[in-house]
Every structure is written in C-alpha cells, then in structure tokens.
Design goal:
Strands 1, 2, 3, 4, 5, 6, 7, 8, 9, 10 and 11 form an 11-stranded mixed β-sheet that branches. Strand 10 and strand 11 form a beta hairpin. The protein has 4 helices and 11 strands. It is α+β, with helices and mostly antiparallel strands and 215 residues long.
Length: 215
C-alpha cells in the first residue's frame, strides 16, 4: 500500500508545482486550436483554490472540427458514412494514472438518431449498432504530446467510421432524402468523455456540427 501511494504521488507532485506556478500568471479560459479547421471547443478552466489535484489531472477537454457525413445512393438504399474526428485532451499525469478513457457519441440531435449503423473493431470484426467506448481498445486513434496553458497534455485524436443505412421504397425516394439532408446545416453530434482510475471521474461533454456531403 505504501509503495502504491508513493508511485501515485510521484505523478501528482509535478502537477501541483505547475499549478502554483500558473496561479501567479494570467490564465486564459480559451484553448487555442491547433488545427485551422477546428470550430467547436469545450474548455474547462483551471479550478480555483482549494484545488482537488486528483480531479484536476483527470479533467477532460475536447476540440473538434465539423463532423463529416458522406452520402451515397444505391438503388433504394441511402448509405451515410460518418467520419468521426475528435480530439480528447487530458493532463499527461492524469493519462498515465488511468485505467480507461471513455468516449461516447450521442446522435439524438441529428437525422442519424434512429438509424442502424455498423463499425469495425480492432480485430476487423463488423459490429452492429455498437462501438467500443474505451479508447484504450481503439486502434483508430493517435496519441501525442501537446501543451495547453503551459500544462503538459496528452492529445488523443479519434478517427472512426460509422456506416448508417436507410432503405426506401424506390431510388427516387432515396435520392430525395439525400438531397434534403445535404441542405441541413444545424444538426449536431454530442460527445461525452470521462476517465476511470479506481473510480469514475466527472464527464465532460461537447457538441459538434454535422456537414452532409453527396458522393
């Protein structure tokens, strides 16, 4: 037990030092996007004292551009491939002190809500209406180091495909639905992310706009 506590503390001490340095400087509540097309950002400002360091280092931040859905029609079937593109950011020490990092999608504010979809997992298996929300198991991601407000962070870029389909009475009806979706620019997908490390930490949520394109 003593050995485990010491191991945990060696990650907490650097972030405490960083926090006390930052409190003497001007802090911004905005994260500067690294991608030129990033449009939707949810930021969690540094908490005020007294600080819960354990909660702070497990705090999630998002950045994301618009979410792309490419549509095609074959006979009477409309196929919509959603290309997920989300950056999940977490303090580096919190990333190291985590058993699981979860990301879930909510399509309830889009035309995709009631449609079935398929995904492909890390083993190449096709899954029906299911995607692994534990990013530790996801292969379609890129983990890199970055800095936000002078704090060392891990950026987990998630890039996955969800294939939605909808059947119609005929080809004309399928094309009509595709064309109507192409004109929509106000739908969104919501994301929620949280860390598990001996307990579940509070989740952070955000939304990103969908753009429908015709293939």
């Amino acid at each position: 037990m003593v050995k485990k506590t010491i191991s945990h503390m060696k990650y907490l001490i650097p972030i405490l030092f960083t926090f006390f340095v930052l409190t003497g400087c001007k802090k911004s509540n905005d994260i500067t996007p690294t991608g030129k097309d990033t449009k939707t950002i949810t930021n969690n400002p540094l908490p005020s004292a007294p600080i819960d360091t354990d909660a702070f280092i497990h705090q999630i931040t998002f950045s994301a551009p618009f979410q792309l859905v490419v549509m095609s029609v074959t006979d009477a079937k409309l196929t919509m491939i959603y290309y997920e593109n989300v950056d999940v950011l977490i303090p580096k020490n919190g990333y190291m002190l985590s058993y699981a990092l979860h990301l879930t999608e909510d399509f309830s504010h889009s035309s995709l809500e009631k449609l079935d979809y398929t995904t492909v997992n890390e083993a190449g298996d096709v899954n029906f209406d299911w995607v692994d929300d534990n990013l530790n198991n996801v292969i379609d991601k890129k983990v890199s180091d970055t800095t936000v407000n002078s704090i060392a962070m891990k950026r987990i870029r998630v890039s996955r495909q969800f294939t939605f389909t909808e059947d119609f009475a005929d080809n004309k009806a399928a094309i009509a639905k595709r064309d109507s979706l192409y004109k929509i620019n106000a739908e969104t997908i919501s994301f929620s992310s949280y860390v598990y490390f001996t307990k579940t930490y509070p989740a952070t949520t955000m939304s990103a706009v969908i753009k429908y394109f015709k293939k």
